[in-house]
Amino acid sequence: MPDTSVTPEQLESKIKEQGDKVRSAKGSGASKDEIQSLVNDLLKLKADYKTLTGNDPPGAPQQSSKQKKKEKKAPAPKVEAGVTRLGIEAKKFEDLPNWYSQVITKSEMIEYYDVSGCYILRPWSFFIWEVIQKWFDAGIKELGVENCYFPMFVSNSALEKEKTHIADFAPEVAWVTKSGDSELAEPIAIRPTSETVMYPSYASWVQSHRDLPIKLNQWCNVVRWEFKHPQPFLRTREFLWQEGHSAFATQEEAHKEVYDILDLYHGVYKELLAIPTVKGRKTEKEKFAGGDFTTTVEGYVSATGRGIQGATSHHLGQNFSKMFNIQFEDPDSNSGDKLFAHQNSWGLSTRSIGVVVMVHGDDKGLVLPPRVAMYQAVIVPCGVSDANKEQLNTHCSELKKTLHKAGIRTHADLRENYNSGWKFNHWELKGVPLRIEIGPRDIKNNQVVVVRRDTGVKATLQNENLEEQLKTLLDTVHEDMYNRALLERDANMAVTTVWEDFCQLLDQRKIIQAPYCGAIECEEIIKKDSARTEAVDDKAPAMGAKSLCIPFNQPADATTETCICPKCDKKANSYTLFGRSY
Fold first, then answer.
1. CA–CA gap between residue 113 and residue 303 (Å, rounded)
2. Contact at 8 Å (CB) between 72 and 38?
């Protein structure tokens, strides 16, 4: 029983003092037993306060009814007293949504914002986007593409000009209707994509075949006011991307660029993000509205068994040039005949960062591919004492400079208010590819201890030629990460010609290549009939399968098979990759 002679005000003061002691002990690296004892005392004081007053102590977080309702659905994990909540508390393959949310916030990639569906990209994630920008920008410039910038606002009349194209985006278009307190004469849209923004200018620039090709790209933001449940990186109301728009005199030139760009997208995922993708063509149902055909690179997330679109390259044909009057005189005609330009558009977004998190992350947090990590290596001094602190810190600082000069992005964590064990966990959570441990014995033996984040394997390396050893190791880490993801993807990509097997494989979280006739109505039946009416597993998705792409590399000749749709008896024209998707 609490001491009833103590007033609530006195208990409040004691709780505050005890809380300060707990924080001080944690910050100074006190032993677990010492921290546990202090925490137990704090919990007893709080219990006494609640018994005495019937209320939680002041400062205890209060929850809204909405939050309480949410917690009923997904209760927060229990944590033992005295244990910090700095690490990842959810398991990736048991509770992916909670795991994903914790990883992106605790690794300092994302900060939540007060506008739903919009997020702050912190430097740890934005650096990944900068690396992608630099690599891809160099690639498109080799193809003769130039960067530009067009306004983010679109007039209503411009959107109306291409109703077929904008139909898919119409529910997501955000409109500006007021300026201060005054209503605008005409509402202005914020771009969901820029075809209708850019192509009127193309029409005024193109008069002759000599004005072609036009190959422009812009790095910008777009807004799509998603009504579905937003997820950072994966489905957001504002996101960053690049969008390329080109116009050619001939179809052959346009077709070539479509596949050149797709190869660059495949390269972004393979060479930078260590993620395997399937290159293919979208079905008629899933292609870009208003285009002739769409090509894509598709990834796979094993934790959910879902495919995820990585980037798309579209051939628009002459559809948009006819709408926006992008035409030129036929160089082979003497009668002044006009020809319409052949156009492409292509885009890659910050969704790619979310794919990295889900494909490579583990129960300890992020696992970053070395080529996109802000820090490729972190140096942590170990066995620090008052006697050797200066020597260790100086040695670590000098090594950081040496590695930086060699082109290895390195950070030396010399903070004195955290012990080495805390730093190990911190940088593991943030996904730094290599941890370099240096203690007094390592200095004496002219060596370092290196630990890989992706595997946890520890090795002792001599300081001689250390820069080259680490560069080789970083390349090995990248290749190993890619190969593990490839093996996992291939182990979960099946081929079948039987509808019952198709549904069973889907419930086993597979993506499936199956013969398909190409009819839109068949695809709609496949999606409807493969959806579960009763959940078999609470954590498994119940949605039906949609087409991801028609892979360029076909597993077999599909023309001898019947369409996988259970209500179709037509011959297939290709094997199509189906699966649940983001």
1. 27
2. no
- Is 256 in contact with 124 (CB distance < 8 Å)? no
Q: Tell me how far apart the alpha carbons of residues 162 and 189 are, in angstroms, rounded to a whole number.
A: 14
Exposure of 94 in the CB half-sphere (CA atoms within 13 A): 7
**pLDDT tens, residue by residue, 313-345:** 999 999 999 999 999 999 888 777 899 999 999
Strand pairing partners for 111? 120
DSSP-assigned letter for residue 510? -
In whole angstroms, give the CA distance from residue 213 to residue 206: 9
How many Cα atoms within 13 Å fall on the side-chain side of residue 141?
9
Q: Give residue 374's pLDDT.
A: 98
Q: How far apart (Å, rounded) are the C-alpha atoms in residues 361 and 384?
A: 31
Beta bridge partners of 120: 111
Cis peptide before 57 (omega within 30 of 0): no
Phi, psi of 140 (to 5 degrees): -70, -30
State how far the alpha carbon of 147 is from the alpha carbons of 17, 29, 582, in Å: 59, 51, 30
E-strand ranges in 259-382 read 278-281, 293-301, 306-317, 327-329, 338-340, 342-349, 377-381
Contact indicator for 130, 240 with CB cutoff of 8 Å: no
Please tell me the predicted confidence (pLDDT) of residue 91. 96
The answer to whether residue 297 scores a pLDDT higher than 80 is: yes
Cβ(245)–Cβ(195) below 8 Å? yes
Strand partners, 349: 241
Both tokens of residue 91? 């398991």
Among 230, 267, 236, 214, residue whose Cα is nearest residue 349: 236
Task: Render the burial of 5-26: b for 16+ CB within 10 Å, e for the rest.
Answer: eeeeeebbebbeebbebbeebb
Among residues 63, 99, 54, 57, the alpha carbon closest in space to that of 539 is found at 99
Element spanning 505, H or E: helix 499-507
Q: pLDDT value at position 168?
A: 63
Count the residues in the chain: 582
pLDDT for 538: 45
Residue 66 has pLDDT above 50, yes or no: no
CA-closest candidate to residue 41, choices 15, 8, 12: 15
- Which residues neighbour 23 within 8 Å (Cβ) at sequence distance 6 or greater? none
Q: Are strands 153-155 and 119-121 parallel, antiparallel or unpaired?
A: unpaired
Mean pLDDT in residue range 293-305: 97
Q: Give the pTM.
A: 0.84
Which residues are CB-neighbours of 499 under 8 A, at least 6 positions away? 564, 565, 566
What are 362-398's pLDDT values in tens digits?
Answer: 999 999 999 999 999 999 999 999 999 999 999 999 9
Judged against a pLDDT cut of 50, whether residue 536 lies above it is answered with no
| Sole residue written with tokens 């934790």 | 303
Distance (Å, whole) CA 362 – CA 91: 8
Cα dist from 25 to 34, 38, 39, 426, whole Å: 8, 9, 10, 18
